[in-house]
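Quick start: read one record
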Amino acid sequence: MSEVYVNGYFAGEHDKPLELVKALIEKRRGSKLPETMNVAYHEDKDEVQINVDSGRVRRPLVVVNNGKALLTVEMSEKLKNDEMSWADILKKNIVEYIDAEEEENAYIAVSREELTAEHTHMELDASLILGVAASVLVFPEKNRGDRLNYGSRMAVQSMGIPLQNFLMRDDTTYNVLVYPQVPIVKTDSMEAVGLDSHPSGHNLVIAVSTFYGYNVEDALIVNKASLERGIGRSVAFRSFVTEFRRYWGGQEDEVCIPDGSVKGYRSEEDYEHLDEQGIVEIESKVPVGGVLVGKISPLRFLGIAKEIKMGLQNFRDNSLTVSNGNQGIVEKVVLTSDSEGNKILSVVVRDTKTPEVGDKMATRHGQKGVIGLVVPEEDMPFTADGIVPDIIVNPHAMPSRMTVGQLLEIVAGKVGALAAKRVNGTVFRGKEEDIRSSLKYLGFRDDGKETLYNGITGEKMGVPILMGITYYYRLYHLVSKKIHARSKGPVALMTKQPTEGRSKEGGLRLGEMEKDCFIAHGAPITLRERFGSDKVSIPVCKDCGVVAIEDHIKNKKYCPLCKNESIVNIEMAYAFKLMLDELKSLLIYPQIIPENS
């Protein structure tokens, strides 16, 4: 007997589960049961799952009966010409929505040509086997599966115009591409996804060639003139928020330009961008650590009456500043309040980012790389017609990745640019023969290769170079947001070791492998400093071996156990001292025995 579950709850048992499932599906198609119901039999668990609850992802599939799809070619044409509506097809049960669970029992054909008597359903369109991100990729069937995965991830990380009202918003952080373009080689789903009105890349002229070794290991050579014309330029918006709180005793935070009597006062230059209210002026340039809003907070909660009586100026500087690694021009200031009536000030700072060496770019085929060199236009290779590529890509990136789709896009993009039309690169639609014949018709070699001339020497290159147009994303992994170094800086309160992370001016961690490199380079003494970031001298009792007490008032050191004053200073890592303290808290007695005691 098979168990039957409805919306996950046990409903009973049935001795013929497959017949039950078949009967329920027939009743659904006969409109005797709700069309939102989905049913599936799991053979491994010997149970029937019936689902009518909300929250399931369902998708439309064409019903197949005895090897024939109920949606005929004539019906498809009528749908395209608006002679028949989607509602009509659903009413006639030609198409049904099934969820992931019922899909496990279905045998789905991708196209009409592969239908057999065993098939239960057929895809409305072959491209629907892909998800939203993957459906943006062009010629995906020509690439390896893992490359499509990478390509989908790159599409998600690309800069573009995420929202067209971005100037009215004050999100924490967002990047906007300044001159985005719709791709020449497009897919059918782009319009449905909304990418035609929110594009996220550029059509770039690329040459597949080496360039003096500067584009080794996926690095890209970029034309400096192309960058100056605006390729890949973006604006990074970052909002900084501060809240003005009310405290017990009638005190509250104040917006003002702090004066010299306030604790933590910076300097006059730090407050020069603020207006008389203490708020930064719009369109003023602020550096890293620059003050955006002058704010003072009470130190202790004495109450206003006591403060006046005692004559205290008990305030500290608590100004809103630009965080480490950020700078730019003030875009706008938003003043609002929260539900408790506390004032909130949000300052949006913008910074224009031109692509530089180290910034990441990627194609829709998972071919990602960083800019390795920015070359003046006069040193770039050029064609007899004077066409100079925007980007030079290393040919070694293609064979191992097997991204034939990218090679096809280069040629298809060239056809689209020359014929002034957008080429369809939807999955299973693009035909290589048609693209190559179109390029030959336009007067070029059908493989897209051209003779190039060396921009530095002026010599003709020995072999023809593949040249065409590819859609490139600029990803939000900017080198200016990742580069980090420090000498001295803040340390963590508990461990006395350098803080962690770029935003906290953190140190760079040196691990086992880095240590081995220092030794291999013959510089082991450097490790003394590297591994002594929390070196400390601790007073220890010679007899008991416990950490001694240092009394600064009486200016003496003594042992907490035997009370004698035979103390010796021992150098150790503060982290080790912390461990000794933790052992003591576990009632374990750690003893340090000095060598020469």
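The chain has a mean pLDDT of 90.
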